[in-house]
Amino acid sequence: MKTIAIIGRPNVGKSSLFNRLAKSRIAITSHIAGTTRDTNATHITLHNDQSVRIVDTGGIEDRSDELFSKVADKAKQAAKSADLIIYLVDGKQLPTQEDRKLFFTLHKATPTLLVVNKIDNDSQKELGYNFAEFGTKEMYFISVSHNRGISILLRAIEAALFPAVEKVEQDMEEELLEALESNFSKGDFACELESQTYNANAQILESQSGFTKQAQPLESTFDKNANADSSDEAFSSSLRALAQDKAWQSTKSTQVDSSNAADSTAAKTMDCHADFQSARNDSINADSSNALSSRADSPVPHLSSQGDEIRDSSPKAESPQDPIQVGIIGRVNVGKSSLLNALVGYDRSVVSAQAGTTIDPVDEQITFESHTLRFVDTAGIRRKGKIESLEKFALDRTTKILEQADIAILVLDSSAPLVELDEKIFSLVQKHALGVIVVWNKWDIAHADFSSIRAEFLRRFRFLEYAPFLTLSALTGRHIKDLKHKILEVYNNYTSRIPTARLNATIEKALRTHPIPSDRGKLVKIYYATQYATKPPQIALISNRPKSLHFSYKRYLINCLRKEFGLSGTPILLAPRPKSQSNPESIEPRA
Hints:
single chain; 18 helices; 17 strands; six-stranded mixed β-sheet
């Protein structure tokens, strides 16, 4: 798949353009320079139905600051791997020597489009023309905030990435025009273009009483062409009205025998359609080695998303299983970004000693033991009184990530004792009912031994005693592979379904061991239990008095289920229900 990198200096509107092209607010934007630090990527579909990958990058600026030098390095790496670069500049500022140097450097290695942003109206173009000194043939004036010039920019992207497709479409349009003009000059309208025009001819013939029966075979003759190339249909539809008008005049002026007319029309249409297909194929093969190829008695193939391969329009194969969504959360500066880099095997996220380095969520996928794992590194969480500027937006994104996650990796700093904020962060796991793995990072510089740290954790976090407990070092790679195995184990528990017979046997055993306390002297019964959903396991307890089941007794039942079935790392949700809701389909699972 083709890749487009958006490059430029800080605060020129790169993230805003990225969001505009993606038609979604993916990247965090603000008036503060240096908001974007890590690269963001998504896929978009162009007007020619080609899919491309766009990458938003941080601003490139010569600074001695360690953080922003790493941001600039990340942006340059994205530019090197791109097929096309959009170099974005601020049209309300004069060109700088740094802009010129960077543009020339990028343009030598990769095709680059010079895009001038913040041109809100035509009068502001005068200042934007100062960037003509860069020496590029074309400049594109846009205003992301006012959605000006975006469609023109998209057309330029299509022409730059898929020139063969653009050439093929132009030649096909020229051939269609020539064929149409030739037919009009001869008064012969049997050769209409593609299935929509053939159907128009059949409708014209049916309007004449003598042609109805003979027009039906003509329609069926070209039924196989109904799936013709979409570019031809788009062009022929624009000429349909004119063709119908000419064909109607020709039909009125020429009265022939109905049988001979239908036969001759079909023969001419077949010949003309064959000539058109032959000319079309010759033109395409001459213009591009990666052009379209036609096959007899089969749908016309289409260009793939890369533009250089041919794929059939046959039904697609079954999509692979959904990736396992893993969110990495914790306080600031506990090593979440370093852990992400260790898990994916390369420097995906910018890492620095400065607290609060990560602003935008950073996601990356890997394949491990035939499973796809999608990791999302989130911004560090602070106390409300210490949240600074952009971090309030980052916290909102973290919450949205957890809403979509399956498993949360809670990262703790083993070089320092636990704090109250850690407890508040862990409450997010309970709120979203996620699978959970507790990770003690920086174990190579731990402040105490394993038994002491674990005892302190279990004392303060009794509600997470079911969570797996791992020690690792993202810097040295210690126990990183063990963490991947643990993710698969927890996900298997998170999606598990308990057989109803074994589930009820366990509940009955728990009831015999410790009967349900009565409710003001009234007996409380559980008739049976059934699991009605997964992610996490959700179990309905059908009872005569569902509201009388105390939370402490539900916790006792959960402990009995864990003792019997394990289910490490996943919460278990019990939902007492009356007999009227005994049908599992009437119970709504967790959103």
